[in-house]
Prior knowledge:
Elements: H1 16-24, E1 30-36, E2 39-44, E3 62-66, E4 73-76, E5 82-83, E6 89-92, E7 98-101, E8 107-112
Antiparallel strand pairs: 1-2, 2-8, 3-6, 3-8, 4-5, 4-7
Amino acid sequence: MKDCKCKSCKCNELTNEQVIQQMEDQAKPFIQESYSSDTVLRHFDKSAPDHLYKWHADDEDRFVESLNENDWQFQFDNELPQSIEPGKIIHIPKGLIHRLIKGTSELSISIKS
């Protein structure tokens, strides 16, 4: 743990037990509402803990678009983070590992599957 160079999660300041608790935390950092049969809206809270923004893969293809100006980022595994500005659509293929990187503003996105 002491060798970690991470600046966002402060994992070098946590005990092993705290790290395990964060890894097992299944809370969602967003509120979701259905928009249509194939689209949901998610509203992310800027005050949600960083550890909730986990690397993951989805069970189906998705198309994500920001609904508001924000300073959040999106990242595919082994790629540099990219901005999520309104009007930009990010295609996430089924099974591809990715994550959101929390910003300082609120974030609302539409997810079409």
